[in-house]
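Q: Got a minute? One more chain.
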Amino acid sequence: MNEYVPPDGPTVRDAKRKFMLEPYLDWAESEGVPIHEDFAIDMLTVDAKPWARFGVNGAICHLKGRDDFLTTFLIELPPGGSSAPVHHIYEEVIYVLSGHGSTTVETLDGRTHSFEWGPKSLFALPLNARYRHFNGSGREPARLAATNNSIYMINLFRNMDFIFNNAQTFPERWGGVNYFGGEGEYIDVLQGRHQWETNFVADISGFELKAMPTRGAGGTNIRFVLGDGSIGCHCSEIPPGTYKKGHRHMNGVVIHAVTGKGYSLLWYEGEKDFLRTDWHHGVIYSPPDKMFHQHFNISPAPARYLAVQMGSVRYPMTQGKRDIWAPQGMFAKKVDEGGMQIEYGDEDPRIFDLWEGEMKKAGLEMKMAAFRGK
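A: Always. Here it is, folded:
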């Protein structure tokens, strides 16, 4: 069992004492697959090994900025292969990294429903529904990134039969009859909170987003409600020749780069140096708690990303998320007004200089003058 060791080393202890245990980490180690931990992970190239539980190759990916709720599993389907039928009491949102295939879901009356997916598809399965993934190619593997709240559920219940062999059904989580066909319902709320409710999005790289000028530079955004779950997702786009405003928030937001390429700068308040993370499709990263970060597009195409986190605008789950997403919350307020955002005019001058150098190196046109007032 993973046990806390004080910074000054282990101490003499009673063998019966239990202190600072984390059952999820013990479970992860017992699964016998690679566990990758880094600030950013390329899910398209990271190593995967046979995972008996799911009947395919896989890996567990822990990001440095993760929280106590979410982690990401890599599921790799071999050419012409399929995963083992499974169900689990934790929620999961799946983003297709590569390949084409299908997933079957066993309905409440015992029948199966199947839907097809491809690169950049996004979907969620109804809570505890039995499912199975199939690779539609006989030549190429398919990779799926499955972000889920198994950390919290395993640490809470500490019983694997409850997690993976639970018979409870949740009919209220299935949604509309066509939600697995890509249809859904648009819910107009207000800027940054507009939602699309469904179970499946065929390709988030081309999905219509809504204007979100408060984040700067002509950016757009939509929030997805998937399987009526408590895991929130939103997709944002940075137009070519632009970058977003700096901001900070709670940890645990898993960011998937979807289209384009670029980088993010990260820093804590008062620090002189920036940490840089370069990204392209397949890379995931997670800004740590209260660490400022800013996203920069350095490609000729729009740069989209998918952000996955515990709590949504429908089900915030924590007071911290309620404070962020309330109509008059911290979502787009300036830092000096108690918010989370740095306006262009208040940013460190080095930020623009760094981006300008990258754009010139790439031979790309900059389109920030109108947004920065210069």
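A: The chain has two domains: 23-173, 179-372.
Q: Perfect, thanks.
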